[in-house]
Amino acid sequence: MTITTAPDEWTIRLGLVVLTHEGGEKGRRYPGGVITLRSDLGPIARRCTLMHEIGHVIHDDEPGTPAWRDARQEKRADEWAVTQLVSCEDYATAENLVGSSEGALARELGITTHLLRVWRGLHERRTAA
Q: Which bin fits 24, alpha (ψ -120 to 50), beta or left (φ > 0)?
């Protein structure tokens, strides 16, 4: 399976520093291009969380914003992340290989089931337009 753009490429391109933290949320971002990821994340959760946090950096989101703005930022970061990780061709290939089961598709694509649902929602909105 090909990856559209890997998180490590974005990290280098943007000059980000990625560290780890113990406990709490999966990812955090700090001023100055620092992102921390929870130390116990598996490879798929780490990859998806890093790309999500990079999405916040790309959109210049500020941590600690009001809840209504934070919800929009979280959705936008998820949508940006999954479009970088999964192309339409990747999804079609994976679906041909493993069927439409969320778990099987997510494993094949190397993403979380949450991001799989985000990808499907984006795709449904695009094809309906």
A: left
